[in-house]
Amino acid sequence: MKRDIKIEEMLDYIAIEEAPKELIYKWKVEVELQKERKRFYVLLLRPSIVFPLVLSGFWYYFAMFKKELFEYYLVDRLRSLLQEISPMFASSTSTIASSNYYIIGAGIFSIMLAAISLFWFYQGNKLRYAEVRNW
Amino acid sequence: MKRKYNNLQINIKKLKEKSEDEFEKFFKSYLNRIYTVVYRVVRNPSTAEDLTSEVMMKVYNNIHKFKEQSQLSSWVFRIAYNHAVSHLRRHKHTESIDDYETKIKDGSEKHLDYLEREELSNYIKKKIIELPENYRVALTLYHFKEMPYQEIAYVMGINMGTVKTYIHRGRNELKILLEEVIGEEK
After folding, report:
1. Computed from CA positions of residues A60, A64, A65, A66, in that sequence, does the dihedral angle turn out positive or negative?
2. B167: pLDDT strictly greater than 70
3. Which CATH number applies to B1-103: 1.20.1440.20, 1.20.1050.10, 1.10.1740.10, 3.40.50.2300?
4. Which of A11, A41, B112, B148 gets the most CB atoms within 10 Å of its CB?
């Protein structure tokens, strides 16, 4: 025996499937996670990208400082100026800057800072893409 | 600018300002339909759930691109449809409809005469799933009630004539598939 059913009526009846209600909650959490990722990027990743640039700036500054140091020495200006401000600072800075290990030391220091900043960047990326998968 | 959706006032301006309350209101009202569009394309409930979540995020992140030249719902359905279709293309050989098969309790073990309305609707849903993708999506959208042919064409990215053809052919194929349970239409 066949049923007397209108397809149109049946199609209207079954037109819409029931979606799991937790999808709304999931969306809300995903939005929060997205915001968190953005905040994280601004607070941590962006400075870590800038970090090596700042570092190379310092490197350049010190290199120039060392080059000009000799010129200052010639007119004895730097020593007198620094000695007036801080005798300790002047002597230690000039000792370090004029030593043979200055370039090696500064290089090691730069590499160390670059490694730290790369580690920071890597960790940041890892955390950035970490998602809560189990609900 | 305000538009009515199912007696629900959705403020598009607020949506564009990323008001989460407004989005929640919209999603609560349209979640089932977004899910249905995706579901009828991919035919797998768990995949449909994941894709629906992605669609919701896509809508949330791209609402500023909505030009208000169509209904907001149609724009969202279009995103849902395209997302589901592109997923299907990417995973053509890995998807199965096993989940769907287990979800729908098949009433065919009983004699069809004794099927209750709920079981019968499940049976028809199963038959809809057997229709070609374009037919079942066009039929689904058409039976969302408020969707005119023009909006369906917009969602599916085809012209109105093709939409009418898909709906007509889909209905005919469904009649053939349901021949054993459904009598002549009056």
Report:
1. positive
2. yes
3. 1.10.1740.10
4. A11
B109-179 CATH = 1.10.10.10
Q: Are B175 and A7 in contact (CB under 8 A)?
A: yes
Residues of B in CB contact (< 8 Å) with A are 20, 23-24, 27-28, 31-36, 39-40, 49, 52-53, 56-57, 60-61, 113, 120-121, 124-125, 128, 139-140, 143-145, 171, 174-175, 178, 180-186
Segments making up each domain of chain B, as ranges:
1-103, 109-179
Asked if the Cβ–Cβ distance from B182 to A11 is below 8 Å, we say: no
Instruction: For residue B65, give the DSSP letter.
Output: G
Parse chain A into domains and list their residue ranges.
Answer: 21-128
Q: What is the pTM of this model?
A: 0.64
Q: How far apart are CA A130 and CA A134, in angstroms?
A: 12
**B110-155 pLDDT tens trace:** 445 555 666 777 888 888 888 888 898 898 888 876 678 888 999 9
Share of chain B above pLDDT 70, in %: 77
The residue type found at B91 is: H
Token match 């409930």: residue? B45
Q: How confident is residue A135, by pLDDT bands cut at 50, 70 and 90?
A: very low
Confidence of residue B78 (pLDDT cuts 50, 70, 90): very high
- Cβ neighbours of A34 in B, within 8 Å: 57, 61
Write the residue in B40, B145, B183 that is nearest to A2 by C-beta: B183
Compute the distance between CA of residue B54 and CA of residue B120 in angstroms, rounded to an integer: 32
Identify from B47, B115, B181, B184 which residue to disrupt to test chain A contact, counting A C-beta atoms within 10 A and taking the largest count: B181
The span from the CA of A114 to the CA of A106, in Å, is 12
